[in-house]
# Entry
Amino acid sequence: MVVEFEPSATSSDIKSVIEFVIHRLRYLREIDVCERHYLIISGYRDDINVKDLSSKHGVRRVTSPDTTAFFCRREFYPSGKSQVAIGDLTLGNGHLMIIAGPCAVECEDDLYATAKAVKAAGAHMFRAGAFKPRTSPYNFQGLGVTGLRWLSEVRQTVGLPVVSEVLDPYDVEIACEHLDMLQVGTRNMTNQSLLKHLGKANRPILLKRGASSKLEELVRAAEFITVEGNPNIVLCERGIQTFETATRNTLDLSAVPALRCMTHLPIVVDPSHATGRSDLVTDMALAAAIVGTDGLMVEVHVAPERMIKPGDGQQALLPEQFLELVQKLKKVLKAVDR
Ligand code: PEP
Ligand code: MN
# Structure
C-alpha cells in the first residue's frame, strides 16, 4: 500500500498517519519521489481501512493494496517519460547516450587505452566489470575492489563517467565511492536483497533484464529499488534466451516500444550481450536507435585477443569498428529526426 502525502503535509500529519497504521503493519518506510513524500506499507492486514487512511489530514491519496508497481509505471510520471541524471549527464532527455568499454577490468594499460579510444570516438560513458558473474568458479571472477579503484582513476584521467556491475549487497557502498552508476546484471535482476540495497544507494542504477524475465518482471524489479528510496533507474534490454543458437541471446527490440507503454523509466539497449557477435553489434545498435532507445551499451576492447578466456572477446568491437558505429548512428538519428 502506498500513501501519498500532500506537499503541504506537516511532520505531525505524517506522524499521525504512521501512528494510525503502526500497530497493524510489518514493514514501513518513508521515501521521497519527485518531490513528494510517501509512506510504503508492506505486509499489512485487511484491518487497515483505506477510506479512514485517505481521510487523514495531509494525505493526498492511498493506492490499492494489490498494486505491484506504482512508482515505475508510465502513469506515475506526468509526461510519461522520466530522465535520470548520471553525474553531469542526463539519460532520457532525447539524446542517445552511448556507453562503451570492455567486458571486464583486466589489465590497466588496456583499460586506459580502451577508455581513451571510446571517448575519442564519441562515447559519453565508460563501462567495465570489476566483479564478474561467471558460470564456473574456475573462471576469472574480476579484480573486485582493485578493479573499482582503477575505474575511478580512469574516470578522473580520461574524463568519462563510469558504470560497473555489483554482485553483492556488501559491495554497494564501496562501489558508490568509485562509480557514477551501478549495474545489476541479468543474473541478478531477481536478487531482491541486492535490489533493496541499491534502493538505499545514492547512485543511479542500470537494471538489466533477466535473460528469462518478462518485461513486467523487469518493471517490478525496478519497483523494488524505488520503494527503498532510489527512483533513479534505467532499464536495459540485453537479449533473452530462446531456442536460437546462431546468436548468444535473442535481442528483443520490441522491448523498447513495449516498455514505453509500461514505464516512464529510460531504456538502454545492449547489442553486445544480446548477440554475442561483433559482426552483428552495429546493425542491432542502429536498429535500437530507430525504435527509440535512450542509450546503447556496447563492448569495445583495444585488443580482444588479450582478454582473459573465457571472456566476451567475440562480441567486443575494435575501436575503429566502434567509431564506424558512432558515425553510422549519427546518420540514422538524423534520418529518424533525433
Ligand atoms: C556485462 O554487462 O558485462 C554483463 C555481464 O552483462 P549481462 O548481465 O547482461 O550478461
Ligand atoms: Mn560482458
